[in-house]
């Protein structure tokens, strides 16, 4: 009988302990799983935002082609009064602010001084006008009888420096001192090279 009572007491103790463990475990709240973004969410991603911004920036930086076509470009010739198409293409790309690869179907009329070119980036064909004038920059004048005078020798020196040539290769030099312009022929040029300059007045 005594043994029976002991066994019943042990069983009761085990049941009580198990109930206490279950009760304590129930007090801990269940851990919530991390919320995952829905695949069907309409919230724009960082990549889509970047693409939208890039598209807007490209649209905002598109050149004003109307103004570009009104402009008269100037391309300086070499000593033979030649302007290679590669030079024209390079300088046009810099002025229009596109890469040279975006300029296609380049056509240059050297008699009429006109250019036709397709800007593939914007699918736009431009019709442009240009001049062929060599800019000698500023030439120092000399003081003669209280007058600033630019000698022809200094003009020729400026031409030699600009064209990277030698004086003997430049012929038929003509200078218009009223307009600060002139012409000269190179060793292989059939037509004279036009040039312009400004005068730095001599000190008195």
From TrEMBL:
<dbReference type="InterPro" id="IPR054816">
    <property type="entry name" value="Lipoprotein_mollicutes-type_CS"/>
</dbReference>
<feature type="compositionally biased region" description="Basic and acidic residues">
    <location>
        <begin position="46"/>
        <end position="70"/>
    </location>
</feature>
<feature type="signal peptide">
    <location>
        <begin position="1"/>
        <end position="19"/>
    </location>
</feature>
<feature type="region of interest" description="Disordered">
    <location>
        <begin position="23"/>
        <end position="70"/>
    </location>
</feature>
<keyword id="KW-0732">Signal</keyword>
<feature type="compositionally biased region" description="Polar residues">
    <location>
        <begin position="29"/>
        <end position="45"/>
    </location>
</feature>
<protein>
    <recommendedName>
        <fullName>Lipoprotein</fullName>
    </recommendedName>
</protein>
